Amino acid sequence: MACIGAAVALACAAALVAWAYATESAAGADASGYLNAAKLFAQGATSVPVPLAADAPWPDALPTLAPLGFRPGAAPAASGTAAPSIVPTYAPGLPLVLAAAMRASANAWTLVVPLFAAIAVLATFVVGTTVATPRAGLLAACGLAASPVFLFHAIQPMSDVPTTAWWLLSLAAALRLTSVPGIAASGLCAGAAILTRPNLAPLALVVLAVVLVARHTAHAPSPSSGPRGQHDEAWRRRAVVTAAAFVAAAVPGVAAVAWFNARLYGSPIVSGYGATGDLFSLSFVPLNVARYAGWLFDVHPSGALASVVAVVFFVLSWRAAARGPDVPGARALFVTLAGFAVLNVGAYLVYAPFENWTYLRFLLPSFPLAAIASASVVDRAISRACAAVPPLATPLPQALVAAIACGLVAGAGVRESAARGVFERRAIESRHELMARAYAPGAASVVFVTQQHGGAALFHLGAPVVRWDLIDPAALDAALAWLVSRRLSPVFLVDADEEAAFRERFMGRGPWARLDWPPRYETMPPLRARAYELADRLRFDAGESWQPVVLGRARR
Q: What share of the chain is helix, strand, coil (3-state, %, to 5)?
């Protein structure tokens, strides 16, 4: 009971930390993409009409008028209007949950990912307790809760933590609930995980294997219970019923993905990310192996080493978690759970490479299983060490040693998170919301020439954008003149680290290309954003000077 209470407290702490440091801003591509999609779904729509695209004088205008997280729709009038439209590129699972929260209360969406974080931590404890011991489950939950990768994505409205939570719930139900309703619950959670991140759909096959092993173990016959043939026939019947219940419960999630793909992108097998051949290739494997392994040992040096030791230990001793091989089904469960982690990692070894440690988020569904394996080794070591010293061979000293181990794990994770700027993320991403607030009074007459801030402009203001990174450099001068003729005020909204790329892309174009006049607004460090108004260029040429308005940090 003590471990259960500690696990609940740990889950609540994870949710509180995630909420306290939540970015609460439609920042960049991912967060703004999910939030804009959620806002659409909450309004009962699936696309955004873009009236400017109907008359825009530059070529391929619609993609340049789509902010990050959006792309042209499958049909020019998918919204039911005459205007061309854009649609979200992201899978609908998380946006649907966010949309439900938005319908309940305007800011309720800020609680969604922190709640998923709590669920993921608690489900890790349940899975760890089932395949190992309560102490191992608690250690594993602590390792997940303190992981910099987990914390970094628990504070942002992104799908990585929700995906992890859904898969863990599916595994927990598969292991603990061996009745048909429990199996259906596991299938429903797997379907929700697929709806949230469709490319991990093959993991459902591994969960089904876990379901079959767990149910077979729960109904394993005793040596004196009758002829083996009768038991084999009963097992086959149970396996058919089990598989049917799981698949039937998971199918709605798969069907929903196909429906969204067909409606938004024109085909049930086409996603918003582009052609499959461009995203997946065996040629990506060597680079991804080197990067993911390097990031793991860089971000989680002790955890990665402990996981390797755990795998070696289990392979050599052929044990599942902290249980011995005499426990029915333990070996099969070990193999299937290891297969889950291997399949998750394999899915991203062939995926297009990235250059930042934060993309370890793709492997998050495997983190709890690696943590459980590591925690099982540590728990066994604690038990054996305490047993060797008679005064410590009681539950209380072992619990104290385990508590110290949890404290060390949590401390190391929090220190690494702080060193990597996890707890500064709110201040960094607030620049998107601050700029949106600054332009809120005149949003109806503004068009933002931007890249990183496009999603925030749509979410917070509903303002149109022109993607400077996509428009033909030779066309932007005429595009600006056309926008002004429509009584729109162009604003170049760029992050400080984008300015050099902007100037290089438009070198030799109009006088605006140098961005050399004072901005109207500027945000504070650690990452500055600047808003340069096109109309201010004429004031600057006339000899006027001014200081930008410095926008302070957003406060809760």
A: 65, 5, 25
